[in-house]
């Protein structure tokens, strides 16, 4: 008996000594990643890592191809999630306390200001990087060859990103929040403009109904804030993470990122990457995806050799870590120098003058100043529809994975940028100098303004120009490049005009220093 | 379903039950969504009443305009009587201010004349004229939820 217990104690001591090794071993399942086989096993066995392939194509790892934009959007989301949970420790979503709790977070809570700044700037950074990422995917033709639906998922993610930013903007309940909220609530009610013109509002008041549903009442008050909070911390995050999961999963199922058909590695690639130990080795060169092939017929990876791939551990993970630390550093440094704004407590009696939405909506607000319905619902709806339809209207499969497809694509994009900028600026100059229908004929019916205003004329021009390009080049891809470039041009120009050139009463000013003193 | 039954236009029991249960599933799903929407439409609102008292006519000497800030209403007193014009811009709900020509909105530059008629900017409708009525205790009441045709004034008979 005593012999047995002693040997038991010995065994226990040995186990204790080996604790570090056994825990790490059980975590990694197949030991330290020291050989190609175990490096592959690390990726394969880990819940979080296996959403990525064991091997990664060299093209994916070239910084100039992806620019790390999608990853940056994801890491910014991680930063907002962590900082957001920290803010929730003190934030109180009631109109009595919301403003004071945000003020406390900013001025009293330890590191509260940093957490709030990081949350704000990482969140707004998401808008920029999601748009940049969309542009990268578009210009490299990566919405093609089986990835059409993932482009749609991306559009949904873009919408959620805007929604989550907007609802976050309202929570501090200061003057900026309140009047942005009033404007958004009335954008939701703006179909009334159309139903009024048609004289059917009393039977079918879709605008009023949606607004009441959104606000939980008729005015932006305490129920409204509760709903906005619910959207911001619960509904949108759940949707965002769920849809994002599908977005990532599809990248994997589509055989990784796009790459050019005739891909060649260069000497630089060899210097940057850890190459496989030997050719062949544990991986066969004809990848077949046996079961998946049976289930789906084919995948984009079938019948393509696996040349030009390297192990994801450590190549891909190092690249990802680099993007992550760059994002984190940029957000921390920016948050250290720039503070998230906090104006006076919301006052429903005195609108800000000018009352401006957050900058990412100021392009829309410029359109809103022509017609509420078209600016707030019609034109953005058309823009999103146009973006969503791109992969289905342009089904050419050539030149996937090449920036701008070809020299011609570059020329088309440049021309669309130049012509688009000139036409849009000319249109804005005209409107700012001469006004629109109502300035000339005060009794013009509202329906005419709703249908024909600078916003709808611009959309008409975008569509017409894309058709001209398709006819001239005989290529739908070129038409898509023109359309998407025009979309980016209008987003940038309209946002600039709304942010910098519009002052009190939404009048035109070259600079804020010319605003009348009041 | 084989061709024989189709000719007789007889639906088999299995098909009928299958289709019927599928229909019930769709119907339940629809009523679930309708219920969620109906639940979100508040039955109780913790808001101020749209109807409020503004005191007696002596508060409004002829020839004056009073802006009731917290109610979003202008009260005009003229020789023809009293009328109330909403100060909520019909474009996107900002509060308009009195200008030389009538009213002006700070948010998107909508302009109205002194009767609330749109004369410039993006506003799709004229400013609402609101109902003024007499309460039983003799004071006047305004209802911001009840619009009246422009030009409707409450005659003040001494």
Give a short summary of the structure:
Chain A is mostly helical. Chain A contains 23 helices and two strands.
Give your account of this protein's structure:
The complex is a heterodimer of chains A (518) and B (158). Chain A has 23 helices and 2 strands. Chain A has 518 residues and is an all-alpha fold. Chain A folds into 2 domains: 31-277 and 292-352, Cytochrome Bc1 Complex, Chain C (Up-down Bundle), CATH 1.20.810.10; 358-518, no CATH class. The mean pLDDT of chain A is 86. Chain B has 158 residues and is α+β, with helices and mostly antiparallel strands. Chain B folds into 2 domains: 3-40; 51-148, Rieske Iron-sulfur Protein (3-layer Sandwich). Chain B contains 2 helices and 10 strands. Chain B has helices at 3-7, 13-40, and strands at 51-55, 65-68, 73-78, 81-86, 97-99, 102-104, 111-113, 118-120, 129-134, 140-148. In chain B, strands 1-10-9-4-3-2 form a 6-stranded antiparallel sheet, with no helix packed on it. Chain B has a 4-stranded antiparallel sheet with strand order 5-6-7-8, with no helix packed on it. The model of chain B has no long low-confidence stretch (mean pLDDT 84).
Give structural attributes.
A: 518 residues, mainly alpha, Cytochrome Bc1 Complex, Chain C, 2 domains, two-stranded antiparallel ribbon, 66% helix, B: 158 residues, alpha+beta, four-stranded antiparallel beta sheet, 21% helix, 30% strand
């Amino acid at each position: 008996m005593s012999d047995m217990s002693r040997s038991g104690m010995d065994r226990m001591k040995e186990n204790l000594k080996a604790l570090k090794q056994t825990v790490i071993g059980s975590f990694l399942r197949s030991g330290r990643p020291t050989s190609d086989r175990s490096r592959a096993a690390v990726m394969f066995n880990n819940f979080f890592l296996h959403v990525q392939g064991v091997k990664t194509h060299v093209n994916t790892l070239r910084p100039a191809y992806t620019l790390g934009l999608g990853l940056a959007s994801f890491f910014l989301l991680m930063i907002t999630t962590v900082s957001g949970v920290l803010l929730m420790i003190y934030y109180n979503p009631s109109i009595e306390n919301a403003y004071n709790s945000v003020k406390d977070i900013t001025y009293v809570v330890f590191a509260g200001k940093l957490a709030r700044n990081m949350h704000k700037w990482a969140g707004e950074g998401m808008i920029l990087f999601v748009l940049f990422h969309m542009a990268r995917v578009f210009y490299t033709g990566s919405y093609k060859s089986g990835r059409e639906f993932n482009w749609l998922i991306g559009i949904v993610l873009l919408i959620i990103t805007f929604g989550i930013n907007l609802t976050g903007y309202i929570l501090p309940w200061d003057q900026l929040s309140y009047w942005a909220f009033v404007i958004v609530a009335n954008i939701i009610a703006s179909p009334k403009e159309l139903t009024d013109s048609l004289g059917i509002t009393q039977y079918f008041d879709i605008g009023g109904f949606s607004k009441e549903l959104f606000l939980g009442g008729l005015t932006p008050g305490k129920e409204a804030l509760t709903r906005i909070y619910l959207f911001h911390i619960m509904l949108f995050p759940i949707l965002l993470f769920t849809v994002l999961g599908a977005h990532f999963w599809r990248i994997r199922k589509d055989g990784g990122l796009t790459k050019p058909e005739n891909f060649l590695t260069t000497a630089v690639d060899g210097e940057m990457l850890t190459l496989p130990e030997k050719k062949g080795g544990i991986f066969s060169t004809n990848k077949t995806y046996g079961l998946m092939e049976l289930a789906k017929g084919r995948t984009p990876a079938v019948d393509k050799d696996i040349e030009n791939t390297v192990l994801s551990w450590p190549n891909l993970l190092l690249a990802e870590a680099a993007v992550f630390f760059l994002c984190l550093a940029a957000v921390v440094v920016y948050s250290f120098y720039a503070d998230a704004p906090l104006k006076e407590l919301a006052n429903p009696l005195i609108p800000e003058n000018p009352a401006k939405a957050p900058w990412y909506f100021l392009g829309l607000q410029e359109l809103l100043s022509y017609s509420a319905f078209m600016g707030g619902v019609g034109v953005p709806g058309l823009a999103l529809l146009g973006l969503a339809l791109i992969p289905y209207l342009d089904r050419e499969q050539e030149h996937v994975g090449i920036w701008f497809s070809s020299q011609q694509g570059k020329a088309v994009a440049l021309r669309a940028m130049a012509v688009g900028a000139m036409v849009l600026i000319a249109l804005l100059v005209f409107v700012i100098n001469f006004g629109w229908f109502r300035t000339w004929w005060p009794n013009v019916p509202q329906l005419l303004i709703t249908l024909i205003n600078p916003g709808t004329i611009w959309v008409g021009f975008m569509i017409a120009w894309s058709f001209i390009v398709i006819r001239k080049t005989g290529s739908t891809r070129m038409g898509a490049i023109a359309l998407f470039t025009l979309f980016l041009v209008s987003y940038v120009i309209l946002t600039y005009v709304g942010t910098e050139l519009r002052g009190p009463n939404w009048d035109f000013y070259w600079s804020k220093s010319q605003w009348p003193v009041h | 379903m084989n061709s024989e039954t189709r000719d007789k236009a007889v639906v088999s029991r299995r098909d009928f039950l299958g289709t019927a249960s599928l229909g019930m599933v769709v119907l339940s799903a629809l009523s679930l969504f309708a219920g969620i929407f109906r639940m979100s439409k508040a039955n109780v609102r913790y808001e101020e009443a749209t109807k409020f008292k503004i005191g007696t006519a002596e508060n409004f000497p002829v020839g004056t305009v009073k802006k009731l800030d917290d109610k979003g209403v202008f009260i005009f007193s003229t020789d023809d009587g009293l009328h109330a014009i909403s100060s909520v811009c019909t474009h996107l709900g900002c509060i308009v201010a009195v200008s030389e020509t009538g009213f002006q909105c700070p948010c998107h530059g909508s302009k109205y004349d002194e009767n609330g008629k749109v004369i410039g900017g993006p506003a799709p409708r004229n400013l609402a004229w609101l109902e003024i009525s007499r309460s039983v205790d003799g004071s006047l009441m305004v209802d911001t939820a009840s619009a009246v045709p422009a030009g409707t004034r409450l005659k003040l008979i001494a």
